């Protein structure tokens, strides 16, 4: 069965182009032309991935994304924007989008991004073997990768799938300096140069969850000019 992609885009020409290229790549495509319709289709049809335009009638892309996450619907979302306004991109990621693309984009890049996000979503859905379950216990942070669960100071944390994958990858590579490009390749599965600000936004959100003071992080350290490193907090 092919993956079902929901395209929420009010510009008919762009929606049609996306539909054509995604169908050519073997995907089933659903279309919606305003935010409210898109939200309704997402809830009823439960697609495997949503391509969500930022500027939409009735409900804008931010509102759609926020409402889906409020309802605990964790369908992967790629935000589409014609703007170069970094605030919009960052806010979209903070609201739970997994990735964003700035118009105009090439058909090849669209298909590559969709496949990369879906690959990770499928990995997270795989049933885990509870025997010999892996657990990371560092300071007040406890992470159960197979269960998609994490706790900090005995409080349950809530992450988007991409944030959780990034956290687990950092834990798996504790005390190693990881460049932004390495993280893009490992977590976002980009086989081409991507926008490393995606990494910075997700790191910032992780820090908000697991650091007592996100401005003075004890777990996720910035290595200036290189990238990031996950460390055991010094007592």
Please give a structural write-up.
This protein has 235 residues and is an alpha/beta fold. The protein folds into two domains: 4-125, Rossmann fold, CATH 3.40.50; 136-230, Arc Repressor Mutant, subunit A, CATH 1.10.10. The chain is 41% helix and 20% strand. It contains eight helices and twelve strands. The chain has helices at 12-24, 35-45, 61-70, 86-94, 107-125, 161-172, 180-187, 197-210; strands spanning 4-8, 28-32, 49-53, 77-81, 99-102, 136-138, 141-144, 149-152, 155-156, 178-179, 220-223, 227-230. The longest helix has 19 residues, at 107-125.
Note the gap between the termini.
Answer: 52 Å
Beta-strand percent range: 15-25%
Overall helicity:
40-55%
- How does CATH name the architecture of the largest domain? 3-Layer(aba) Sandwich
**Poorly predicted runs:** 126-131
What is the mean predicted local confidence, pLDDT?
85
Q: How many DSSP-defined strands?
A: 12
Structural class: alpha/beta
State the CATH class of the largest domain: Alpha Beta
Shape: globular
Spatially, the strands of the biggest sheet line up as: 2-1-3-4-5
Largest sheet: 5 strands, parallel
CATH topology name of the largest domain, in short, is: Rossmann fold
Based on CA atoms alone, the radius of gyration comes out at 18 Å
**What's the structural domain tally?**
2
SSE order? EHEHEHEHEHEEEEHEHHEE
């Amino acid at each position: 069965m092919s993956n079902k992609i929901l395209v929420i885009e009010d510009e008919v020409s762009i929606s049609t182009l996306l539909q054509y290229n995604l169908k050519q790549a073997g995907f089933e495509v659903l279309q919606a032309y305003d935010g409210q319709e898109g939200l309704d289709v997402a809830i009823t049809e439960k697609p495997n991935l949503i391509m969500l335009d930022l500027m939409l009638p009735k409900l804008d892309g931010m509102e759609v994304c926020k409402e889906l996450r409020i309802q605990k619907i964790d369908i992967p979302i790629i935000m589409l924007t014609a703007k170069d306004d970094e605030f919009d991109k960052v806010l979209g990621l903070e609201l739970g989008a997994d990735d964003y693309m700035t118009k105009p984009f090439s058909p090849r890049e669209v298909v590559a991004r969709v496949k990369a996000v879906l690959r990770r979503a499928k990995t997270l859905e795989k049933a885990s073997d509870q025997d010999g379950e892996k657990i990371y216990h560092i300071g007040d942070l406890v992470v159960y990768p197979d269960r998609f669960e994490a706790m900090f100071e005995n409080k349950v944390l809530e992450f988007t799938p991409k944030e959780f994958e990034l956290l687990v990858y950092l834990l798996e590579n504790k005390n190693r300096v990881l460049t932004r490009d390495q993280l893009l390749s490992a977590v976002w599965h980009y086989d081409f140069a991507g926008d490393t600000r995606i990494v910075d936004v997700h790191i910032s959100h992780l820090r908000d969850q697991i650091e007592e003071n996100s401005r003075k992080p004890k777990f996720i350290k910035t290595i200036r000019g290189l990238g990031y490193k996950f460390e055991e907090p010094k007592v």
